[in-house]
Amino acid sequence: MKTDVYEEQEENTTTMERPRSGEQAGQANPPDHAEMMKKMEAAGRPGPAHETLKAMTGNWKAEVKCWMDPKGSPEISQGTASIKPILNGRFFEEEFHGQMMGKPFAGRTLLGYDNTKQTFNSVWVCDTQTSMFVSEGKADSTNKVITLEGKASCPVTEKKDILMKTVLRVINPNKHVLEMFDGSQGNAKTMEITYTRS
Can you tell me the distance from the alpha carbon of 94 to that of 120, in angstroms, rounded to the nearest whole number? Predict the structure, then answer.
């Protein structure tokens, strides 16, 4: 008899603790599938910000100015770049070829706009480093001036997590300028690349 009572109590307890069909932890009503898909599609659809990036598609000649000393004259070199849309216009990939300290180098940038966070995002890698430079930021009201910030490390000074600012200015369909500023030097300009359509 006692065994049956205990088994009945255990079964009742288990039934009470078991969530009802369709319920999730902390959520009385599951989200509507159609509404979920609608939001996902809207977040993944290229918009006006992507059109700004699309305008930079093509082949470019690049004049690169680098400042080792912010008060000194820049080192000037020439390069080339090719920018193309990937993943159905959701991201843009730049392949860059230039010179650094008299030696050739190649690098790639992946640039995009996150509809959910409403921020521009960039990742830079090259064949002279093992680190990635990841940055994020916003644009002005016209989407023609995009300001990104990220952290980088310098192998020469051994400084780590240096705040760097990148400003991309779309001048016209045939010209855009990329500037980089070093937060550890009072936001001194360390690099400027002028892209001219080739």
Answer: 15
